Input
Amino acid sequence: MTRASEVLSEHRASIDRLDAILVYTLGERFKHTQAVGKLKAEHALPPSDPAREAAQIARLEDLANRANLDPEFAKNFPELHHSGSDYSTTRNIKNNRQIRLTRHSKEKLTWL
Output
């Protein structure tokens, strides 16, 4: 094996480790966003918080700049979360409806 092949192999191994870290980190993030969605549904809170979302994007733009990434990455990050969790989002919507039904069961709501 040539030195270039060894270095290439080392870089690829690092990339593979970082990919695993990213996937597990996103999984942990999704758990928290699901918990937030459930909490909002249980307490009839608004599903979105535009002020927080704007602050988050600004924070992510700053982080991207510090990491020498294109700040546009920060603007697209929420879309990554949404596209990566479409299944979870659909499941959360169903769960939130069930929670609302449970909270308002005396009203005999039947939508799910």
Summary: The helical segments are 3-42, 50-66, 72-84, 86-103. Residues 101-112 have pLDDT under 50 and may be disordered.
